[in-house]
Structures are given as structure tokens and as C-alpha cells.
Amino acid sequence: xxxxxxxxxxxxxxxxxxxxxxxxxxxxxxxxxxxxxxxxxxxxxxxxxxxxxxxxxxxxxxxxxxxxxxxxxxxxxxxxxxxxxxxxxxxxxxxxxxxxxxxxxxxxxxxxxxxxxxxxxxxxxxxxxxxxxxxxxxxxxxxxxxxxxxxxxxxxxxxxxxxxxxxxxxxxxxxxxxxxxxxxxxxx
Length: 188
Description:
It is a single chain. By secondary structure, the protein is mainly α. The chain folds into 2 domains: 11-101, Arc Repressor Mutant, subunit A (Orthogonal Bundle), CATH 1.10.10; 108-187, DNA Binding (I), subunit A. Helix content is 47%, strand content 10%. The chain has helices at 15-40, 51-58, 62-70, 87-95, 98-101, 113-126, 165-171, 176-187; strands at 46-48, 76-77, 83-85, 141-145, 160-164. Strand 2 (76-77) and strand 3 form a beta hairpin. The protein starts with 14 loop residues before the first helix and ends with a helix.
């Protein structure tokens, strides 16, 4: 999973962004978000005020970078004037659960067991407490990742299904297609 940061779908209509777009067009808008991406990579989301480095990285003139950073109130400067940041961006990043801020993927039950069990209950109820692989009702049920977590599958409801313990252990980290093929070969 790549590094993540929130972005409002209507950010282009923000008053400050409109002023930016009126002066620099959508190029300015793209530069603004590229600067946020660079800030995302830095500790505490603060960027060194070195317009030459940013301009080189984004392949745009220094004057354009300077204008995007200084002319529209999108960024604030540290007291010494050597760094800049976006308070709204920093606030948004603080609201993101720690597991989403890192490139390392963490299973939900490792950071929020209570939420994980709530999701499992929803999955079982949705699937009528029936294993979706063999049709067995009741017994020891587990939530299985349809797309295995190890292959990038999520802990979201649409990627979880009810599985009996036996099927879940047999499926392991196989994809749904691989598991069905494996089951068919075992029956023959």
C-alpha cells in the first residue's frame, strides 16, 4: 500500500484554491498537491523552504513554486522562516489511523480488536452463519479474506466472507479461483 493522505473531492472549489487556479490554472493545482505529497514524505509534514529543490523535482520554474507556496495562504511558515507547512493538511493527517499512515500494512485485529470483532459479526450475520465455501452452517466460523491479505486484500466487509474453520485452513492464502480449483482437484 502506498502512503496515503486525505483529499476532499471538491478541493478545487476552495476559495484559496480558486485563486490559485485563476493565476496558475490546473498546473498550479497539480503543483499544490505535489507539494503536499512531498510534505507527506517528511517528518511532521513540514517542508524545507528551498524552492530550487521543489522546482527541480516538479520540473517547473522556481517563481511558480514560490507563488504557490506564498501567494494564496495555503501554507504557513515556521518562526525562523526556514520551513513551511499546511495546518489543515497536518490536522487531516492526525485524524488518519496510524496503520494507514505507514507503508506497512497492519491487519485490523492488530490495532483495533473491538472493531475487528464487530466486523466479523456483521460478516456472519450477512452470510446467515453459513460457510460460503462448503455450505456448512454453524460450528467454528471464521472471517476469511476473499482476496488474501498477503496479496493486498483489505479488512473491508466486501473482501470478507464467512468460512468454517476447515475451509479457511485449507484456503490459506489462495485466491478464490485457486481455492475452487484446489477443491475440485481434491474431489476427483
